[in-house]
């Protein structure tokens, strides 16, 4: 007698989701850290900024009910300082028996690449889009975690990611509709449920929920802080997908890259925003190299 396989649903995700497993390379690097080193916090920050599942753990602990601080932490380095060495050591000890997963296909590896790229681009945009008043640390964390729902799907069944991507989608704007057709829900739905369960900071939970809502600026009930943050992440998301879909982009001259970003990384429902496209075009090769180096350290290249 065979057991009928249960369909993947949001209810099932809510039942099963606890903590995401980590990349084996991150676990190994954390276990090898010298806690007496003056660079200890910097190294843990570096690893947290490269692995979204680890970042969620750090933020959850830093903002836990047991914390005596009332200030919500959304910057990973600040979160680690609040957590303190003892708790970091506890995390590292726990990781000795943590579940790990190893992405195999190009689509699975691309999840990390996209998250890391989006984080770095979002931080750059936040720094240069001064009128938005989006904190650069929050922008980075939001870019890193915006697709945490894709990691949730990977954990539940890696095939879900492969099946969705096999259907073909060209922009992040199309992705939710493809997911609805295949799964009946989106990775934003899955990520929102998981982020709430993990008790991540509300601004990040809401960002995950709305990061594919391109009409968010029309919702007056949503705070200006969240609207601006979502727009920064959406733009960074689109830029990352643009360069991933066009691996020949480093050969483009600045005029072509500028034109492609202005045409591809845009939604008609957005308000008029003076995104720092010219500055980004000049910086994008450097950002790309930094991200590539991170992926090499993660053994994803």
Describe this structure in words.
The protein has 301 residues and is an all-alpha fold. The protein folds into two domains: 19-95, no CATH class; 106-297, Hypothetical protein af1432. The protein has helices spanning 10-16, 24-31, 40-48, 52-62, 76-95, 106-128, 136-145, 148-156, 158-166, 175-182, 187-197, 202-210, 224-245, 254-264, 277-297. The longest helix has 23 residues, at 106-128. 40% of the residues are buried. Residues 1-5 have low confidence and may be disordered.
How would the blueprint of this fold be written?
Elements: H1 10-16, H2 24-31, H3 40-48, H4 52-62, H5 76-95, H6 106-128, H7 136-145, H8 148-156, H9 158-166, H10 175-182, H11 187-197, H12 202-210, H13 224-245, H14 254-264, H15 277-297
Helix pairs in contact: 3-5, 4-5, 6-7, 6-13, 6-15, 7-13, 8-9, 8-11, 11-12, 14-15
């Amino acid at each position: 007698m065979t057991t009928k396989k249960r369909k993947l649903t949001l209810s099932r995700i809510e039942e099963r989701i606890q903590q995401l497993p980590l990349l084996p390379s991150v676990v190994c690097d954390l276990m090898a850290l010298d806690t007496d080193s003056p660079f200890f916090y910097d190294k843990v920050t570096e690893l947290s900024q490269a692995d979204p599942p680890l970042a969620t753990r750090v933020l959850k602990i830093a903002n836990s009910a047991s914390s005596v601080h009332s200030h919500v932490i959304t910057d990973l380095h600040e979160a680690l300082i609040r957590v303190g060495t003892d708790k970091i050591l506890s995390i590292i000890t726990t990781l000795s028996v943590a579940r790990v997963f190893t992405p195999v296909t190009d689509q699975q590896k691309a999840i990390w690449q996209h998250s890391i790229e989006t984080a770095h681009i979002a931080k750059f945009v936040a720094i240069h889009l001064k009128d938005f008043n989006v904190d650069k640390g929050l922008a980075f964390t939001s870019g890193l975690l915006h697709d945490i729902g894709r990691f949730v799907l990977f954990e539940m069944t890696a095939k879900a990611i492969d099946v969705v991507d096999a259907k073909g989608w060209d922009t992040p704007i199309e992705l939710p509709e493809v997911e609805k057709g295949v799964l009946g829900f989106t990775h934003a739905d899955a990520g929102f449920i998981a982020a709430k369960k993990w008790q991540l900071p509300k601004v990040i939970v809401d960002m995950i929920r709305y990061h594919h809502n391109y009409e968010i600026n029309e919702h007056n009930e949503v705070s200006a802080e969240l609207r601006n943050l979502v727009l920064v992440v959406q733009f960074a998301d689109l830029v990352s997908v643009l360069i991933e879909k066009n691996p020949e982009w480093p050969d483009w001259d600045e005029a072509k890259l500028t034109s492609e970003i202005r045409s591809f990384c845009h939604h008609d429902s957005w308000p008029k925003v003076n995104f720092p496209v010219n500055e980004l075009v000049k910086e994008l090769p450097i950002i790309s190299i930094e991200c590539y180096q991170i992926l090499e350290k993660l053994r994803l290249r």
